[in-house]
Structures are given as C-alpha cells and as structure tokens.
Design goal:
There is one protein chain. By secondary structure, the chain is mainly alpha-helical. 90% of the residues lie in helices and 0% in strands. The termini are far apart.
Length: 21
C-alpha cells in the first residue's frame, strides 16, 4: 500500500531534506 505512493513522495522528501539542511 504505502510503497505504492512512496516513489511519488520520495522526490518531495529528498527536496525537503536538502532544503532543511
């Protein structure tokens, strides 16, 4: 279930991490 949306949310998390750091 979650893994189905994970690939779509991952790019957003990656940007959020870079923005936070």
């Amino acid at each position: 279930m979650f893994f189905g949306d994970f690939p779509l949310l991952w790019p957003h998390y990656s940007i959020s991490i870079q923005s936070t750091v």
